[in-house]
Design goal:
This is LysR family transcriptional regulator. With about 210 residues, this protein is α/β, with parallel strands linked by helices. It is about 35% helix and about 30% strand. It folds into two domains: about 100 residues, Periplasmic binding protein-like II (D-Maltodextrin-Binding Protein, domain 2); about 100 residues, D-Maltodextrin-Binding Protein, domain 2. Helix 2 crosses helix 6.
């Protein structure tokens, strides 16, 4: 199965952990890739399942909603905004940012949003790795825009809510419409829906 990079930071761990505990004898191959490549492999029956965003343009791909992902201003514990629960979106123009580079769908959406609302972010650095971005903000005064869920299991980072909400996207489980599904793939699909429901419930409880 495959998933986009943003989901490996907070969804893959709980999902694979739960799957392995329940099905320790099932072999699993995980691949990280962008959505276009994922859908191409699904159409060619080279993948059983994919986790990506909604809005597939292919009639050969069916999707089931998993969870809603909300982008937040992510900062280190030492950052002046770390003690605040939320900030106005206009504050983005005052922040020095490190952002994902242009090949990420997340960056494309951030740029489009900023243009729409006249926000002029001060982008000091770019990186093509989510882990690199998180490492930098942990050790510098820079902040970033990433899904709030990336800080779920980290004590060194804080997700500050933006008001109005910056961007919300729906993560979906993708599969080829006419592909045969093995028992293992069906079990993984069920587990993905269960874990996503748990993460959604945690998010609503905050």
């Amino acid at each position: 199965m495959a998933m986009m990079p943003t989901f490996t930071t907070y969804f893959m761990g709980p999902l694979v952990g739960s799957f392995y505990r329940r099905y320790p004898n099932i072999s699993l191959t995980l691949r990280e890739m962008d959505q276009d490549r994922m859908e191409a492999l699904l159409r060619n029956d080279e993948l059983d399942l994919g986790i990506a965003f909604d809005g597939s343009g292919s009639r050969d791909i069916v999707s089931r909603p998993l969870l809603t992902e909300t982008l937040a201003l992510v900062v280190g514990r030492h950052h002046p905004l770390a003690a605040q629960r939320r900030v106005e979106r206009e504050a983005l123009s005052q922040e020095s940012l490190i952002l994902l580079s242009g090949e990420f769908a997340t960056r494309e959406r951030i740029d489009r949003y900023c243009r729409q609302y006249g926000i002029e972010p001060q982008v000091r650095m770019e990186a093509n790795s989510i882990s690199a971005v998180l490492t930098v903000i942990q050790r510098t005064p820079l902040s970033t825009l990433l899904p709030a869920a990336v800080v779920r299991e980290r004590d060194d980072l804080v997700a500050v809510e933006l008001t109005p909400a910056l961007l919300e996207r729906t993560a979906c489980l993708l599969q080829h419409k006419d592909a045969w599904q093995s028992a293992a793939a069906r079990a993984f699909s069920t587990m993905a829906l269960e874990v996503a429901a748990e993460l959604n419930a945690e998010g609503e409880g905050r």
